[in-house]
Write a structure and sequence with these properties.
- By secondary structure, the chain is an alpha/beta fold.
- It has one domain: Alpha-Beta Complex (Inosine-uridine Nucleoside N-ribohydrolase, Chain A).
- The protein contains 13 helices and ten strands.
- It is globular, with a radius of gyration of 18 Å.
- It starts with 5 loop residues before the first strand and ends with a helix.
């Protein structure tokens, strides 16, 4: 008898790595994607919603409901500069047709998240692969929201204090540090985090990347098109191929093979530092005497991770 899939809501800022992570979750035998909520991050939230529709169209899954979030951070900031993924957050690829935005749901992302957890208490997994604004807003509107989640998975933060957007902060947390702080402090449900270190240390080689994009499927060619400019820029700069959200997806769909080590810790987010604003701070030595609020993935099997990417590319039609 087939095991019933877990119900999944993906909260995303619609970037290039988000696209591949969404494809992996749509293929999953473990999760059933029942909705996608959009958050300001790689671009403004209206563009994020268009990007998500492009991603779903490439996957032939426009039946998945898409909900748009608010345009501002918790503190009311709107603009985010992240030129690496393009002005539109999806590689500025001219060959990708604009979507029909009339299929977007009229319900807001936060309202949808709250409603779904009330309809299905204890059954929904929330996967956060963008800034945590929608999650934090849901917790502010409904303090019991987190207690109704089955669990929560986050790609964001950094535990070495080595940033990828500032000297010490990771992009998703730095895009809305107050939201990240609220999320870690208040979500309450079992929460697993994949930080930037795992992504930076375990990326495939460029030869492996070109192997992935050699397959002819519709999704794979979509990824190749949106990655064209960032990949060319990365190679020119001498950077490694460092996907991000895909690592969280792999840890979720096949934890027994991908995840090699985790740590149960208390972590928070720095909100007052001149140089450390938005940095995740982990209390490794239990100085703060707080109960753990996170399971951090600290080691993965990079070969198993690549196999998940490879199977996603091979299974694309």
């Amino acid at each position: 008898m087939a095991t019933q899939k877990k119900k999944l809501v993906i909260d995303t800022d619609g970037g290039i790595d988000d696209a591949q992570a969404i494809f992996i979750m749509l293929d999953s035998n473990v999760y059933d994607v029942i909705g996608i909520t959009c958050v300001r991050g790689n671009s403004g939230v209206e563009q994020v919603a268009r990007n998500v529709l492009k991603i779903l169209r490439a996957a032939n899954r426009l039946n998945v409901p898409v909900f748009s979030g608010g345009p501002f951070s918790i503190l009311g900031e709107k603009a985010i500069k992240n030129s690496y993924q393009g002005d539109d957050g999806l590689g500025d690829c001219p060959s990708i047709q604009e979507p029909d935005v009339s299929v977007l749901q009229t319900e807001t992302a936060t309202d949808a998240m709250i409603r779904l957890t009330k309809e299905l208490p204890g059954e929904i997994t929330l996967m956060c692969i963008g800034p945590l604004t929608n999650l934090a807003t849901a917790l502010k509107v409904d303090p019991d929201f987190g207690s109704r989640l089955r669990d929560c998975f986050i790609m964001g933060g950094n535990y070495y204090g080595k940033g990828n957007i500032t000297v010490s902060a990771e992009f998703n947390f730095h895009a809305d540090p107050e939201a990240a702080y609220i999320a870690l402090e208040q979500v309450g449900c079992p929460t697993t985090l994949v930080g930037w270190e795992v992504c930076e240390e375990n990326g495939p080689t460029w030869d492996q990347y070109h192997q992935l994009r050699s397959f002819p499927g519709k999704r794979n060619q979509f990824l190749k098109a949106i990655e064209d400019k960032p990949v060319a820029f990365s190679i020119k700069q001498g950077w490694n191929y460092s996907p991000a959200d895909e690592f969280l997806a792999a840890c979720m769909v096949d934890p027994s093979h991908v995840v090699m080590e985790t740590k149960r810790v208390y972590a928070t987010v720095e909100l007052g530092g001149k140089f450390t604003y938005g940095q995740m701070v982990v209390d490794w030595n239990k100085v703060l005497k707080r109960d753990p609020n996170l399971t951090i993935v600290t080691k993965i099997d990079k070969n198993e991770f690549f196999n998940i990417l490879l199977n996603s590319a091979k299974n694309d039609i």
